[in-house]
Amino acid sequence: MIREGDPYRLRADGVHWRRIDGEVVALNGRRSTYVAANPAGSLLWQALADGATRSELADRLVRAFGIDRGRAAADVDTYLAQLRAEDLLEP
Question: What are 40-80's pLDDT values in tens digits?
Fold first, then answer.
């Protein structure tokens, strides 16, 4: 379980991805599924490749897209839940 302030990371094994025209295209080798991320998702994906806290992810959305902090935090939570459901985050 992730505690507040702990970094989230993309799973290192079995995930192959590239950034193409500002978007991320990925293959989840464990599930043989294809994943694509829009510009906002790609921004978060890149941060997760290096490891980032929930707060850092929300800060990136606020800076990049000028949205309010509450919306950014909610968007981050939704995105993290989607990645978790696809088994793309480190446990």
Answer: 999 999 999 999 999 999 999 999 999 999 999 999 999 99
Residue 3 makes CB contacts below 8 A (sequence gap 6+) with none
Would the CA dihedral through 53, 11, 81, 23 be positive or negative?
Answer: positive
Q: Which two tokens stand for residue 84?
A: 């978790």
- Cα–Cα distances (Å) from 90 to 17, 18, 37, 52, 62, in that order, read 16, 19, 18, 12, 25
The pTM score is 0.89
CB 67 within 8 A of CB 61: yes
